[in-house]
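Cross-check.
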Amino acid sequence: MVDERAPGVNLSRRGFLGAVGAAAALPLLAACGSRGGSGGGSSAKSLKFWDMPWGGTAYNPAAKALVGTYKPTGSNLSATYQEIQWANFTQTFSSAIASKTGPAVSTGGGFQAFQYAQQGAIAYADNLVKTMQTDGTLADFLPNMVDAMKTANGYAAIPWQLDIRVWWYNKAIFSQLNLTPPTTWDELKSVGEELKGKGYYGFAAGAGAGNNLGAHAMVMMMINNGGGLFGTDGKLNIVNDQNMQAMQFVNSLVKAKIVDPRSVSYTGDNQNAQWKNKKFAMGIDTAGLDGNIGDTSGDLVLMKPLTAPNGDKACLVFENNIMMYKNTPSQASSEAFLLWYIQNMKAFWEKNLLSGLPVLKSIVALPGFQAQSNKVAAINDWVPVAKTYAAQGSVLSPALAQVDGGQPLQAFTQAILGGQDPKTALTTLQNTLSSIVKS
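Predicted model, tokenized:
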């Protein structure tokens, strides 16, 4: 993102399909059905592993080098590495899987595995989970990480990193103005007023072309207040009291100009520039914000989770995962490779190539990771209160892919940042997504 979004690239990495993309891809995916297993899309001598640009320029070469060290045992096949760009990645995967030329194993959008599982293309990881339970790997995962991948039909994928949204503040600015980081929403607004009076903005946001951080901030505020886009039954439930209160609060920040009026059109680069230029003094971003903007001063520091009016503390997280496909020359080889990869991926954090957070306790314990104080704070303070797009529910599903990164949520964010009435904006979002999302 550097974070799972490379600087200047703001496509959704977590959501597999936006609303339009989901509808367009379904016919292609339907073609693969439950067929597969013959390995038509992978070489008979090796497995195809497709990976995305999860970090800066050093990440993919390091990942390719890591895969090159894989030495399969017994009759298991070796693996080859291929980088897949985020631009048009949904079409790349859809076309390749439909034509049986896709990977045996891949990373990808956070909800991609659930989308393809619904279409019959995913090889469930239940057998691999049993293996990890036996060899101790399963116990190395942070709590509830693997369980989040479980569907009614089995484990759709294996988690490998967390893309979390957290509150940041500029310690130097706060010290200069004798301000204390807020701990509640009321304090957030009071501090925002103080910052505004000195020419700073206290709710960093952006909803321009390709920038989903603003939308994530809106959803995070809803979740923080006990709301969310979905109900406990997994169905859309957007116009509720919790969400209304959250968006009314954001609306009050917009009207008070605690939010930069230009945020509605800010791209990811614009947003990063405002942080770097010290115009943004407080706001929601990824756990890799400091690395994204090249801050070496130590001025950017994570806040503690805010307490919402209803007493809740929560944030938004995307559980990026690695999935296996039925179209593999050897399912046993796919499982062996994926297990090896999970057990050997620590180098990405040892070399600080990712701003996404690790899912393994052993990686968190590494001296190199422990030296990254903001990421350690994210693990200790934020991960325990993190919730996914499924909130108020907890079950990940293909429906989430039709929300994240889609135009309806982006339009909603632009409406809120533009000062539109929250009830009108929430109602429009509910009505628009209801015609698209298959709960």
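Confidence is low (pLDDT under 50) at residues 1-43. The CA atoms of residues 16 and 109 lie 4 Å apart. Passed to J.P. for a second look.
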